Amino acid sequence: MIRALSILTAILALAGCTTTSRSFYVLTADGPAPSGGGPGIGVGPVSLAEYIDRANLVIAETPNQLGIAEDHRWAGDLSASVARVTAANLGRRLGTGNVRTYPWQGDDGIRYQVTLDIRQLHGAADGYAVIEAGWRAYSLPDRKIKASRTFVAREPLESDGYQPLVAAQSRLLSRLADDIAGGLK
């Protein structure tokens, strides 16, 4: 009897050792912001729609149904990643290495603050990534609105899978930076 319990315990222990393979993803900028000075740009805060404010990637299976990719997760906080990528992309477009993400210590040297409201950022069953983002650019230190828009776009996935989805989402953030930079010029 004791031997049978030992064998059963060993089998259960081995069964508990099986691991699920998880993949972690990061959004990427077009490249680093230039080094050196230039007009200061602060990006943030970034707010995310509740359905994407999670560790997992999200796919819209139908217009009213979402799928959560349980084993495919963001490598860090999504709002911080969106801010980081947007700041780097804006730095490249505006020719400044003076970019910061929220929260920063004091407004010294920051000419514009860009806030983002990400309402949609997910994959769709039709093979596209989608974004809807409201953004506002404030001049500092007077905090007057310089520009405010809603940016909506779709980007085709180059192939099936989560890595192509994240690459398409990164391209959407690049296009968002184009829109913001155009509003600041």
Arithmetic mean of pLDDT: 90
- Give the distance, in angstroms, between the N- and C-terminal Cα atoms: 80 Å
Rg over CA atoms, rounded to whole Å, is 21 Å
| Broad shape | elongated
Structural class: alpha/beta
Question: What is the CATH class name?
Answer: Alpha Beta
Tally of separate domains: 1
- Looking at the chains present, what oligomeric state does this protein adopt? single chain
- Helical segment tally? 3
CATH superfamily: ABC-type transport auxiliary lipoprotein component
Low-pLDDT residue spans:
1-18
Question: How is the main sheet built?
Answer: 8 strands, mixed
Instruction: Write down the secondary-structure element order.
Output: HEEEEHEEEEH
Helix content: 25-40%
Please tell me the CATH architecture by its name.
Answer: 3-Layer(aba) Sandwich
Number of strands: 8
Strand content: 35-45%
CATH topology: Rossmann fold
Describe the model.
- With 185 residues, the protein is an alpha/beta fold.
- It has a single domain (25-184), classed as Rossmann fold (3-Layer(aba) Sandwich), CATH 3.40.50.10610.
- It is elongated, with a radius of gyration of 21 Å.
- Helix 2 (78-94) packs across helix 3 (162-184).
- It is built from three helices and eight strands; from the N terminus they run H-E-E-E-E-H-E-E-E-E-H.
- It starts with a helix and ends with a helix.
- Strands 1, 2, 3, 4, 5, 6, 7 and 8 form an eight-stranded mixed β-sheet that branches.
